[in-house]
């Protein structure tokens, strides 16, 4: 009995010593920068960076010189942390978070079902295989939640009316939902773009309206209402809003969030989610009456002749800020007059 115990103990000791030796002999040294980068990454393992998880990205940055700005969930903070570890430039202080938005409002109350999807596995991808989907609008959200299943942040839900809704505060900008949507109607947009065309239909006006009551009908009223006028590369005057392939599109780089296009849209396809309502106010002691502000105002709400103190009609003002940007004498201020829920 004692002999057997001694033999087993000896075997155990021998194996332990062998494993200790092997662990030291065959130990894989990890670059300390890899571990440091792993510590600052969010650990979402979403793959938005294009590498296999946070570990793969940390190794690529530390050992292969990969772009340190690819972690969408981590944002500017992670970029700055990696820059501190590896050296180099930090994040652009003016960078705006990108969030996913569903470009469709065609829920069950605004569209109709053209058939019942009779299958055990009800998914958007499956529905798309049958005549492009079971909704009257071929371009609309099908509401079976393929995007919900792939979201690593639980930022998406299918609401009671059968359409995907994204919580922008939870969105980590991983773009998984964008890639998963078989209708290609989820798009990444700047978080500060508050006026959005929430329609993806490319049908002509009459057909689009027949398919969905809130569809863009390409009437062009939004284009006419847009106060932003700039020249493109060919010298043509363009607006922040354009209509192409029978649907309106807002250029986030040009849009000033004035909301005029939303006000003019006859079908409510353009949604205004501006929470803080601002109004311009002239600072009389600084105003020299140059009329520059009045000339750029898209709603003619600034009164006053040349060399006279100007005044803003608060009822007409839409808070676009064009006058504020135009005034060279800092004679205009923007006041928050209302905060919407």
Automatic annotation (TrEMBL):
Residues involved in [4Fe-4S] cluster 1 binding: 46, 49, 54, 71
Co-factor requirement: [4Fe-4S] cluster
Pfam families: Fer4, Fer4_21, Fer4_4, Fer4_7, FeS
Residue ranges of domain 4Fe-4S ferredoxin-type in the record: 127-161, 162-191, 206-236, 246-275, 278-307, 308-337
Spans annotated as Hydrophobic: 1-23
Coiled-coil ranges per UniProt: none
InterPro entries in alphabetical order: 4Fe-4S_dom, 4Fe4S_Fe-S-bd, 4Fe4S_Fe_S_CS, 4Fe4S_Ferredoxin_RnfB, Elect_transpt_cplx_RnfB/RsxB
Residues binding [4Fe-4S] cluster 2, per UniProt: 137, 141, 147, 181
Binding site for [4Fe-4S] cluster 3: 151, 171, 174, 177
Location in or out of the cell: Cell membrane
Record keywords, A-Z: 4Fe-4S, Cell membrane, Electron transport, Iron, Iron-sulfur, Membrane, Metal-binding, Repeat, Translocase, Transport
Location of the 4Fe-4S domain: 29-88
PROSITE patterns: 4FE4S (PS51656), 4FE4S_FER_1 (PS00198), 4FE4S_FER_2 (PS51379)
EC number in record: 7.-.-.-
Taxonomic superkingdom: Bacteria
CC cofactor note: Binds 3 [4Fe-4S] clusters.
Role according to the record: Part of a membrane-bound complex that couples electron transfer with translocation of ions across the membrane.
Quaternary structure annotation from Swiss-Prot or TrEMBL: The complex is composed of six subunits: RnfA, RnfB, RnfC, RnfD, RnfE and RnfG.
Protein family: Belongs to the 4Fe4S bacterial-type ferredoxin family. RnfB subfamily.
Descriptive protein name: Ion-translocating oxidoreductase complex subunit B
């Amino acid at each position: 009995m004692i002999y057997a115990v001694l033999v087993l103990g000896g075997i155990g000791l021998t194996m332990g010593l062998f494993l200790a030796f092997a662990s030291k002999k065959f130990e894989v040294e990890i670059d300390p920068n890899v571990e440091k980068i792993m510590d600052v990454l969010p650990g979402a393992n979403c793959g938005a960076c294009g590498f296999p998880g946070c570990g793969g990205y940390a190794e690529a940055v530390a050992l292969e010189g990969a772009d340190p700005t690819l972690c969408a969930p981590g944002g500017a903070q992670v970029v700055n942390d990696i820059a501190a570890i590896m050296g180099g430039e930090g994040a652009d202080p003016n960078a705006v978070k990108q969030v996913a938005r569903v470009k469709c409002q065609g829920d069950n109350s605004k569209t109709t079902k053209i058939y019942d999807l009779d299958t055990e596995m009800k998914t958007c991808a499956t529905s798309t295989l049958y005549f492009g989907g079971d909704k009257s609008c071929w371009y609309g959200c099908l509401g079976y939640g393929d995007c919900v299943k792939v979201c690593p942040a639980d930022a998406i839900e299918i609401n009671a009316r059968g359409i995907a809704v994204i919580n922008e505060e939870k969105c980590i900008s991983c773009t998984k939902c964008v890639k998963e949507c078989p209708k290609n109607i989820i798009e990444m947009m700047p978080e500060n773009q508050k006026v959005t065309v929430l329609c993806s239909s490319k049908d002509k006006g009459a057909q689009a309206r027949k398919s969905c009551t809130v569809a863009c009908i390409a009437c062009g009223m939004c284009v006419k209402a847009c106060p932003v006028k700039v020249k493109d590369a060919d010298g043509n005057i363009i607006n922040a809003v354009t209509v192409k392939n029978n649907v309106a599109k807002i250029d986030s780089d040009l849009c000033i969030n004035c909301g005029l296009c939303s006000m003019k849209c006859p079908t409510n396809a353009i949604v205004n989610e501006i929470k803080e309502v601002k109004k311009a106010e002239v600072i009389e002691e600084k105003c020299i009456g140059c009329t520059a502000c009045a000339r750029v105002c898209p709603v003619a709400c600034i009164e006053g002749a040349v060399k006279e103190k100007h005044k803003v009609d608060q009822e007409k003002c839409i808070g676009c800020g064009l006058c504020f940007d135009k005034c060279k004498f800092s004679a205009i201020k923007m006041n928050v007059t209302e905060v919407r829920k």
